[in-house]
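#struct-help
A.M.: can someone run this one for me? Single chain, 301 residues.
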Amino acid sequence: MIKDLENIFIGSHAKIMDAFTSLEKSNKSIITSDKWKRDEGGGGHTFVIQDGNFFDNCAVNFSSIAGKKLPKAALGKSISQSSKYGYRAMGVSVIAHPKNPFIPTSHMNIRLFCVMGINNTIKKWWIGGGYDLTPYLPFKDDCINWHKEAKENLDLYNKSFYKNFSKNCNEYFYIPHRKERRGIGGLFFDNLSNMTLEKSTNMLSGIANTYLESYQSIISKRKTSKFTKEQKEFQLLRRGRYAEFNLIYDRGTAFGLQSNGRIESILASLPKDVKWSYKKDKNYIKMEKEVLKYIGKDWNA
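D.P.: on it. Structure tokens below:
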């Protein structure tokens, strides 16, 4: 049973790896495919592209781990913290930081948590995941289609999911100390167990597929856009917001650290090139004012 569930996530992981690899044409790009095992149980596959012609860096992670006590970051209010038979947690996470500032940063995550029973049976389970988009030089059509396609997919499972998950996303990917969202939103949900396990994992696969198709559509429209030195500088400075959220607020990062996860894989989501600057010039202030109009808007389909 556990192996069958793992194969669902491995399939999504492989599909996204293949799609992202096909974007890289440079022999100078550093591509690392790293399969690893964990002392406490389980392992994973971390795939990273750095210094490519398309990606500054991206990470596509699969993990399936076992342990005795669920980390606090994995728990909902109604979830028991312990089981004498332990837990299994598996998932795929994706973070893409393209080189071209006209192509947004994107993030996707699907995950399954299982509280185990006797003889490796599953006593309790729940799913979570979602995806979001962080533009730097935004386009209205990209924002509209990103949300429209998310809704169309979720409506196949429950007509109320998109409205709730989109709202959750706007609230979750918020940077309190900046008083702004991380991006234009998308989907975020957790502790969901009101469907069958089969239907739930089908939905997770559908979310991964929709994310990839929506992102590829944006890439195909923006990948030949020429950008200036000032626009690249703006992207690097705005990536600082992304790093701040991941290091301070992100529950996925907290879960990895609390579960004695593999540090290289956990921090692979951070942008390779990023800047902070105390004094901003007029170009930055102008571009930031424009992007905040998009980030501050509810794009709910």
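A.M.: thanks! The beta strands are 30-37, 42-50, 55-69, 82-98, 105-116, 122-134, 174-175, 180-181, 185-192.
D.P.: also worth noting: The chain has one domain: 2-272+283-295.
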